[in-house]
Amino acid sequence: MRMKLAFVTLLFAVLMVSCKKDKDETVLPGELAVVHDRLAASFDTLNTLIGNANAQFAQSGIDTSAMRAKLLELFNTCTFSEEFVFTTPQGILQIIEPPAYYAYQGSDISNQPHVITAFQTKQPVLSNAFDVVEGYQAAVDIHPIIQNSQVIGAISAVFEPARLLGRIIEPIVTSQGFEMWVMEKTGVVLFDQDTAEIGLNVLTDPLYANYPELLAACQKIAAENSGETSYSFFQTGTSNVVKKKTFWMTFSMHGNEWKIIWVKPE
Predict the structure, then answer these.
(1) Which one, of 235, 229, 237, 200, lies nearest residue 213 by Cα?
(2) Which of 19, 66, 83, 200 is found 20 to 30 A from 135 (Cα to Cα)?
(3) Higher model confidence: residue 157 or residue 18?
């Protein structure tokens, strides 16, 4: 009888813990998963294209004519990249497509962090957003080409995160009562419906200095994979400060993290 009672007590305790866990779990808005999955699908396609190209050159070696043809093929196939580049093991932009960027061939990018990391680890890297030598803010998806355990160069896609994210997010938020924006783990805004904020760092830019709730929320978002919080800031397109209920989800790829953020005035 005592054994039966102990079993019932244990079962009740397990059920209580389970119910509490379910109750405490944050239910994220479905739009976050939609953006995450569409973003993942876009990069899956891009990574497959570059991976196949790298496999070709890892086997055959680097032929500049063949490489230029492949970069142009990649550019014509990918729907969101501004350009594709081949970087030598010395960090020189040897070949670029399309022709609009030919003037930047020969540029030395050996000191760029994503190039250093990719060549040292021999693994793909998604860079932070930065001003590329071609003169615009972009991110780079770089894949080193490995032949006999040696790096013989790299193929990279150079793209504007705001363009990629905008085509995914804008149809979702049109005529809805919520907003979405995306920041790097570093705090740099990659996409916002208020385009003036794209490229600013929420954690360091003076625009945000007088909004401690926003800073605290962004620090929490940067540190945690997903969750909910709130903060006060301008309602998009107005000078009105409103309290915003906030949920977020993290997109991770090649060692980088993008925070997809859903907000709605309370």
Answers:
(1) 229
(2) 66
(3) 157
